[in-house]
Design a protein that fits this description.
Distance between the termini: 24 Å
Order of helices and strands: EEHEHE
Shape: elongated
Structural class: alpha/beta
Number of strands: 4
Oligomer: single chain
Amino acid sequence: MFAGNLLIGALIEGSAAHRNAAAWGGSQMPVVSADDLAERFWDMYTRRDRVEDTVAPGLAAAGA
């Protein structure tokens, strides 16, 4: 069994929040794709070398 936490500091491309931000004229928040998040989750699960990771595009050392 494995439990992990992926902290997402971005809008998820195609999500309701992303669509709403686009409808209101865009957002200053970075955007990440669901495929990228799935790869990060899978990497955490298969390697089991960490229980927490952060996705925050534009922030130094995020997810490193």
